[in-house]
Amino acid sequence: MITATVETRENYLTHEYGVKSWLLTQDHKRIALLYLGAISFFFFLGGIFATVIRLELLTPPGDLVSAQTYNKLFSLHGIIMVFLFLVPSIPATLGNFLVPMMIGAKDLAFPKLNLLSWYIFMVGGAFVLYAMLVGGVDTGWTFYVPFSTSYANTYVIMTGLGIFIAGFSSILTGLNFIVTIHRMRAPGLTWFRLPLFIWSMYATSIIQVLGTPVIAVTLLLVVLERGFHLGIFDPALGGDPVLFQHLFWFYSHPAVYIMVLPGMGVISEIVSVYSRKKVFGYKFVAFSSVAIAILSFLVWGHHMFVSSQSVYASMVFSFLSFLVAVPSAIKVFNWTATLYKSSISYHTPMLYAFGFIGLFTIGGLTGTFLATLGFDVHVTDTYFVVAHFHYIMVGGTMMAYLGGLHYWWPKMTGRMYPELWARLSALVIFLGFNLTFFPQFIMGYLVMPRRYHAYPGEFQVYHVLSTAGASVLAVGYLIPAVYLIWSLRYGNLAPDNPWEASGLEWQTTSPPPPENFDITPVVNHEAYDYSILEEMKVG
Amino acid sequence: MANHTLALRHQFDNVEQQKDASTFGMWVFLVTEILFFGGMFCCYTVYRALYPSAFGHASNHLDIILGAVSTAVLICSSFTMACAVNSAATGAKNALAAFLWVTILFAAAFLVVEMSEWHMLYKEGLMPGFNFTYHDVDPAHVQLFFCMYFAMTGLHASHVTIGIGLLVVMAFRASRGAFTPQYYTPIEISGLYWHFVDLVWIFLFPLYYLIARHLH
Questions:
Q1: pLDDT tens digits, one per residue of B28-73
Q2: Cβ-defined contact of A106 to B10 (cutoff 8 Å)
Q3: Can you give the pTM of this predicted structure?
Q4: Which of B10, B38, B143 sits opposite A237 (nearest CB)?
Q5: pLDDT digits over B158-210, tens only?
Q6: Bridge partners of A137?
Q7: Which of A54, A482, B78, B98 is 20 to 30 A removed from A438 (C-alpha atoms)?
Q8: Cβ–Cβ gap B29/A232 under 8 Å
């Protein structure tokens, strides 16, 4: 119900109206919402492909779709979810909205570039959509050569160009964040007073700036090879297909951390605010983000244990991959230590945070299984791998994204979401997710290969469980889609600081004014210092 | 004074912060660019190490004179660009515009020389994807050499072209008197970009034209 006291203060949503004011906006908050709309569309599109995949796998024979169609389904599911949803998800929406506000700035350093990034993303997305509409692509999201360059009979060039273009959106967003975090912090906001979300966005941006150009140039070479029948990677023409895999994973492994590091930042914020405590070991959590960013570039070879890589190289990559577990574990243990003897409240974002910590731990630990040479050879290209990375990407990133979206929803929209429905859907998503993906660990260990559209009857029980879980998960995702849109009009008006958080973004109004703060804030306390709220009340 | 309050964008607190941010942004962009070219340099290095003899033979088909001329032209352009930045800093408006136009001229000359090299290779039947008709020793890996050559010099040429566009805009703005010793950040960051483009060629030239010519 709308209360009688309609907000009279001008905010970023009301100070201009009309389509043009949105499409030409340079306000980071509005651009965040443009991204939110775009990536939500891609998420549900990718979800439709997943649904058809799960329906096909309900029965052992390939009866619902043909093998060729099935190949296109899992390729488009992967491409859309990875490049058009997960990579931009938290950075482009929550990051865009929050980075300037959390550091007390009026906007990002380069607002026009920020808008340009959105347009570049949309153009890249349009290329992929066009490829999808005219016939799709069947190479898998990895575009392995020489299949993608010489044998695939689908729209590889169009899709590859789409990802190439969308990559520049990611690079420019990362560049914008790095410069903003370095140069635009409010007076008194030193590096070690920054919220941990900023540290994680900074680490993510470094990966975006260093990794994305490599995949861009690799896909460019694939496009050239396919378009002009060159032999850069095709062994029949003198090229080396393993080189492609090296270049591809040099980006695509760090890309996993582009997806999950921002989620870790969100979880640090949520865990602190709903337990009313400083994050335990702030500096360790901050530096673990940077450590993950650095290590992420040293482990790509663990995707190539069976790709004719030398055993010596594999051993080195295996060892380095284990190292990633150290900073990841620091985060998990420190969140847990933060919760210890704290006053926890179970709001929806906190439920998502609990979900994240548990599911990320399972995903991370199975990652160390896969870094083990002997075990990896056994489960290469099986559902064990599929389950592992879905625990990280969906169980990790998606939980954090939804948690963050709920946590900052009052700030972004000026409306509260319905708590009861939100808690219910968080629970449904958690249960549905585990039912979908846990059976995949088991069938993967029993060596059910990934990317097959037909399979022996002995695996059916796991596929039935997985498909049942997927339908629960789908309902879980549809509930927030409905009530969040509903809340835009009918949700309770949000106070400026509904969670009594200490971050700068909560010290301005909900929704914020166009330039975020009326007066540039001066910071003289550390992050997550809840005692300042008491002082402010007294003051 | 009026000039640089006009030039201050709303998100910045003062001119220094704006200048720092723009310059820093360009440096970060150049880091991205290094990795962008880096992917191709990596391919080149791997293939050169795998097929040294084919690469040595292939490099003899490049014209070392044309390569040397284009290198000289680019180094000159970097020098005039540095002069342009210096003129901007000292407020020499006419010199600034003049140096920018000379830089553009050198850049265009570079492209002309490079296109004549490409045309020559095309006539020799050494352009993969169009008319590759090499039948001597190890044609597959000679083709690989030319694939990498055209991909890398092509990517570099596209950067030169973008640079020319950028400098033309800067030259017109300079003639209109848009820059003062207090505000010339666009000139400075265009200079950074231009030196980077030049530097890439400084690596491309020896890698393709100079090393292993003796293997003929």
A1: 999 999 999 999 999 999 999 999 999 999 999 999 999 999 999 9
A2: yes
A3: 0.95
A4: B143
A5: 999 999 999 999 999 999 999 999 999 999 999 999 999 999 999 999 999 99
A6: none
A7: A482
A8: no
Q: How far apart are CA B105 and CA B102, in angstroms?
A: 5
Give me the mean pLDDT over the B93-119 stretch.
Answer: 96
> What parts of chain A have a pLDDT lower than 50?
1-7
DSSP label at residue A330? H
Cβ pairs A/B, distance under 8 A: 112
Residues 99-128 of B with CB under 8 A from A: 128
The DSSP 8-state label assigned to residue A298 in this structure reads T
- The neighbour count for residue A502, using CB atoms within 10 Å, is 23
State residue A188 phi and psi, 5-degree precision.
Answer: 90, -10
Residue A227: phi, psi to the nearest 5?
Answer: -70, -40
Residue pair A416/A492 in contact (Cβ under 8 Å)? The answer is yes
Q: What is the DSSP letter of A528?
A: T
Q: What is the ipTM of this complex?
A: 0.93
> For chain A, which residues make up each domain, given as ranges?
28-538
Three-state SS at A328 = helix
Question: What domains appear along chain B, each with residue ranges and CATH number?
Answer: 27-215 (1.20.120.80)
Residue A462 in tokens: 């796991």
Distance (Å) of CA B135 to CA A326, B124, B125, B130, B141: 55, 12, 10, 15, 11
Alpha carbon distance A23, A29 (integer Å): 13
